[in-house]
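Human: If only I could read backbone structure tokens as easily as an amino acid sequence. Underneath my words sits a plain record pairing an amino acid chain with its backbone structure tokens. Take your time, and here it is.
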Amino acid sequence: MTIWIAIGVTAAGCYLVKLLGLSVPAGALERPLVRRLAALLPVALLAALTAQQTFSDGQHLLLDARAAGVGAAALALVLRAPFLVVVAVAVVVTAGVRAL
């Protein structure tokens, strides 16, 4: 029963956040700072999540094959490779390091 209560509270919270977003006046959303934050915040959160999942194991810093894959992907991005090539490079390098 506790799980269903948590699901219900989460669903209600998501609905309220969505409703709050819809009730913000359009003038407030047109400000340059708000537009810039709306563009950059998801990227920063995704980068933080990726870093946390790649470089940590609970409470400890972890450097393994995933770190090599992220480094290879970063290098491919610097070389301006297409997205699918970046993903493929990361996969191949990660698999190669794990195979060693």
The first strand starts at residue 56 and ends at 57. Strands lie at 56-57, 60-61.
